[in-house]
Amino acid sequence: MIRVENLTKRFGGVVAANNISFEVKKGEVLGIIGPNGSGKTTVVNLITGFIKPDSGKVFFAGKDITSKPPHEIANLGVVRTFQNVRPFYNLPAYKNLIIPLYSPRAKSFEEFKHGDRDHIALDLLEEVGFERDSPIPYKPASALPHGYIKRLELARALALKPEVLICDELFSGLSQAEIASLLPILEKLNENGLTLIMVEHRLKELFELADKVVVLEYGEKIAEGKPEEIVEDEKVKEAFLGAEVI
Ligand SMILES: Nc1ncnc2c1ncn2[C@@H]1O[C@H](COP(=O)(O)OP(=O)(O)OP(=O)(O)O)[C@@H](O)[C@H]1O
């Protein structure tokens, strides 16, 4: 579904991504891990068109999408969440989904085109764990606890019915219990055919989901493999010196 070939991106003297290649097959879950500043978000930004590579290519389902603008890439079905979420804080939670539901991609789906968008928004929020018959979906986003803000970010991405969903640190700031309740939701989405790329620092939880893991350090890919191979990899252990799960 996604293939990146020799992606390189420099910011001044910093090589944020250096000749990175990997691929994700349909229905797979790929984890991207690495210490702070290792280039994970840069790779997400390169795939989703938020920044352009100095060299290298990005393919989606065999089609070259390198340097296409973000809205075109999202319109094709490659959708991301953001590490720093920015909902419309003054709007009720469910109304935050109205904007993506009016996007060209969402409008291309019959059920979204003809259904009542408020109901669709409430359905999407329920899918990510908002209690439907509670006041929570109707509260302004500013009144939501962080765990719900993260779920709202996930629902915002799901409103585009992605083929590939790229989550940039979806679990950050969440308690173990909150992550435990999100994991089955992600598993279900994946079982229903969604291809997932997850940038994560929460390795233990990520490894429960991931089929394959790419490890970055200083902009370089230092390892790639199944979670059980990655935890045994000497280079990875060194990069994550002190990380409990490794
Ligand atoms: N827009 C930018 N301008 C200048 N330098 C940048 C920019 N974006 C990223 N960098 C630098 O590129 C390197 C990789 O950053 P990136 O955010 O991709 O890392 P990361 O692995 O996602 O980090 P974290 O885990 O802290 O989110 C860092 O040294 C960072 O300071």
UniProtKB/TrEMBL annotation:
CDD domains: ABC_Mj1267_LivG_branched. Pfam families: ABC_tran (PF00005), BCA_ABC_TP_C (PF12399). One of its GO terms (molecular function) is ATP hydrolysis activity. One of its GO terms (cellular component) is plasma membrane. Keywords: ATP-binding, Nucleotide-binding, Transport. InterPro entries: AAA+_ATPase (IPR003593), ABC_AA/LPS_Transport (IPR051120), ABC_transporter-like_ATP-bd (IPR003439), BCA_ABC_TP_C (IPR032823), P-loop_NTPase (IPR027417). Residues 2-243 form the ABC transporter domain. The keyword Nucleotide-binding applies. This is ABC transporter related protein.
